[in-house]
Design goal:
This protein is mainly alpha-helical. The chain has 26 helices and two strands. A two-stranded antiparallel sheet has the order 1-2. Helix 11 packs antiparallel against helix 13 (about 235-250) and helix 17 runs antiparallel to helix 18.
């Protein structure tokens, strides 16, 4: 996703009135002094959450058997229902069914937006394939979990209007820490009703920042990003999933260096903010040259989690622009893919053999998290933006130290000998060599060929098209769409000196995941005539 524009930010801030009737009903909306609007939104059908004009399509996503889904969805497309609408309906069906509490479920949710963006990069009959692939996964899991008979999300009543103190991010965080699900749900509903998507998003971030864990970080970003497709009237439903995820996670053990809670984010973040006097400081605009960004990335990657947080905090205090710090964090995370020795024999499972780096590998998770922190910082209010970047740096270092291994001494791909072994120079021959390496599961070779392709100045679109083809066709262990979007988004925002590291990492992951076709894709391809 591109950087958030002023128009987008204003749009998110101004959807509050349109959400109130949807979130809390007309009576409470009137008590809050906001009149009803004509837009249909999330409401109650008895004790059920309903979605106005989208309800029929959402229910269809929940009720259709997977073996019939492709035929039904292709028919919808031919009847003029757009991919944007199908994606939005699938997200609402997912939220209502799982509420952010099912592993496969929230992975399907996080893949929907990236799949839609992938479809926009394609043309012709096959353009719908990325979306149909994830719709198939989504509905299959919904049916496995009991469909409409076992929905997680129900209507929620907001806290009392005029309550003091007013519900805010601190009140939400306190309710979650107390493991009081009812209070947390009511507080969040009241925040969303009062201030709309922007207020809800920023309040939610205060709770998300309590811990650093990939799903806790990526789910709110992908839910927020979905608002462009689903519409602001559904913001409460989509962001609410993260509240419930955080409630569930509150019972898990704390993820801190050495298991020491004093070194966890709940202690480190406020200490860094205080140390560098970051609260209230205006965002810097200082640019950085390539060497400075590389130095920051190296310090983040090589430090302890606390040191990495200090690096980010210090750079922000020195006036560097937030995007400079964000790029350094993304480059540090990228090293976890380029240096990873791959899964050990102890970690091998079906679909993820020894040496593989796709799926829930440390590098893929780290890059997805860094990308989410960076994008949420772009959208958030200043205090939350600073916190996102500090925690983004902290998490990269924590991921490296948690994973074990000798990351600091392992040489990153592409190795010189692999690059020297790439003899082709013209674009078609290089793309053919990359394709051959991917099909042979040759991770280092694939990374080297894509690196050489970029080094010679060839059109990035050619490499992206090749990698996109396999992001669509392969299963990717729930991560293919999301990581394709992460890598190409970081490529788009990176400076020329570093951007091809992102596609080299994507090439490596693509070669790792090849050979495990995604369910439903071949059938959908045939039905589309692609």
């Amino acid at each position: 996703m591109t950087a958030v524009s002023r128009t987008r930010r204003e749009f998110l801030r101004n959807v509050g009135q349109g959400m109130i009737v949807a979130a809390v009903g007309a009576g409470l909306a009137a008590d809050l002094g906001v009149s009803a609007v004509a837009a249909e939104g999330d409401g109650a059908g008895g004790d059920r959450l309903t979605f106005g004009g989208m309800e029929g399509l959402v229910a269809l996503m929940q009720e259709t058997p997977p073996e019939r889904l492709n035929a039904v969805m292709v028919a919808k497309l031919r009847d003029g229902v757009g991919l944007k609408t199908l994606t939005a309906a699938a997200a609402l069906a997912n939220a209502r069914t799982f509420g952010g509490e099912d592993y496969v479920g929230y992975h399907a949710m996080m893949a929907l937006g990236p799949a839609y963006q992938m479809s926009r990069e394609l043309s012709g009959a096959g353009a719908a394939l990325p979306v149909l692939k994830v719709l198939y996964r989504n509905t299959t899991r919904i049916r496995e979990r009991g469909g409409r008979a076992h929905e997680a999300l129900r209507p929620v009543t907001a806290g009392e209007p005029g309550a003091r103190p007013a519900p805010d991010g601190e009140a939400l965080r306190a309710a979650v820490r107390a493991k009081d699900a009812t209070a947390a749900e009511r507080v969040f509903a009241a925040i969303a009703a009062r201030g709309g998507a922007d207020e809800a998003f920023n309040a939610l971030l205060m709770e998300v920042q309590d811990e650093t864990e990939v799903h806790r970080v990526v789910l709110p970003y992908r839910a927020w990003d979905m608002l462009e497709l689903a519409g602001p009237e559904h913001a409460h439903t989509l962001l609410r999933q993260s509240v419930r995820y955080c409630l569930q996670a509150e019972s898990w053990s704390r993820r801190a260096p050495g298991g020491d809670p004093t070194l966890g984010p709940r202690k480190v973040l406020p200490a860094v903010l205080d140390k560098f006097k970051l609260p209230g400081r205006e965002a810097g605009t200082r640019p950085a040259d390539d060497a400075t960004v590389e130095r920051l990335a190296t310090a983040i990657f090589g430090g302890t989690p606390q040191q990495a947080a200090d690096v980010a905090g210090g750079a922000l205090a020195d006036g560097f622009a937030p995007d400079v710090v964000g790029e350094a964090i993304a480059l540090a995370a990228n090293q976890l893919i380029l240096r990873d020795a791959g899964r050990s024999a102890r970690e091998e499972v079906t679909g993820k053999p020894i040496g593989s780096v796709h799926g829930d590998s440390i590098g893929v998770h780290a890059c997805d998290s860094a990308n989410a922190w960076r994008n949420m910082a772009r959208a958030a209010r200043p205090a939350n933006a600073v916190a996102c970047l500090v925690l983004g740096a902290y998490q990269v270092a924590l991921d490296r130290t948690d994973r074990g291994g000798d990351f600091l001494n392992w040489e990153p791909l592409p190795l010189k000998r692999h690059v020297d072994g790439v003899k082709a120079t013209d674009a078609p021959a290089l793309l053919a060599a990359a394709d051959e390496a991917i099909r042979g599961n040759l991770q280092a070779r694939a990374a080297a060929v894509v690196h050489r392709y970029g080094q010679l100045g060839h059109d990035p679109r050619g490499a992206m098209d090749l990698l996109l083809k396999y992001a669509v066709s392969e299963d990717g262990s729930l991560h293919a769409e999301k990581f394709y979007r992460t890598a190409t988004d970081e490529f788009a925002h990176a400076r020329p000196a570093f951007r091809w590291r992102q596609l080299a990492a994507l090439a490596r992951v693509t070669a790792s995941e090849y050979g495990r076709p995604a369910a439903g894709v071949a059938e959908a391809r045939a039905m589309l005539g692609a």
